[in-house]
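Researcher: Here's the sequence for the chain we discussed earlier.
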Amino acid sequence: MPVVGQQGHLNRRQALSGLGRGLLCLGALGAAGASLSGCTSSREGDQSAAKKGTRSITVGSKGFAESWITGELYAQGLRNLGYTVDLKTNVGSSDIINTALLSGQIDLYPEYTGVMLVTFMGEEKLMDSAQETYDLAQRWAEDNQVTMLRATPFENKNAVAVRKEFAEENDLKTVSDLQGIGNFTYSTYPDNVTGAQGYEGIVDTYGLDNMKLKTLSIGLNYQAIERGEIDAADVFTTDPQLLRSDLVVLDDDKKLFGFQNVVPLIRDDAYAELDDDASELLDELQSLLTLEAIQAMNEASAINRLDPAHVAKMFLDENGLM
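Model: Thanks. This is the structure I predict for it:
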């Protein structure tokens, strides 16, 4: 099952007043990049035939906006097909929510492929591609009686960002380019100093002895870099703040941060109870979740404070899935 290719960044903020129209456009971008065919034809007829009223499933999500939104997308989409859905939010960390899945407390939740490799499998080898990451995660799923569906085009992973002016002055396009610019200051949160993908891992992998460290709480790095207090910042690639800044995300040319596309994980016995319309819906939905789409929804929820359930409904409505 192929991973859809990555999408480009937006260079302007999605205004709250135009969010519905923006999500419609973003959904169209996702559909254009999808490899699925025939998923949107005669959906109304399929829905009416499928609504038996006896089918049920429990969906879980972790404790942050992106996971809440994705869980809501799954839950609302399945309810629209006639499933009885129990949505459990804030289940916990990857370890906790995965235990809930395997023990039958939940049946379905969204997980990141790279997290599956590192957290569930203890994999230390750097992957060469999103597809390789997906394939290895699939092996874990099969070994644990879990069905893994289509991956999203977007991925949410750590990255190094610099101001556009700083990038242009120093001709920066990749993280490796930081080697030749003299001393500079990089910021990350305190828990991300050590470890293979933390500050120390970046220094070791890229040979950045010239990268000095300033630790800040999560979120404060955007203010600090905009004020010129730091030169580079640890960000997540789906951060909505990237929509309204002039920051440039440097290419992780040594693939230190891996690949973190989102996949629905469904326990095999729960999957066996679902009709084909459920997997078709989830595959189609996954194909629409481009970087632009998830950033816009993250912004609506995390910054503009809209209820994740409302944000998800807007996206489903605009893309003909409700």
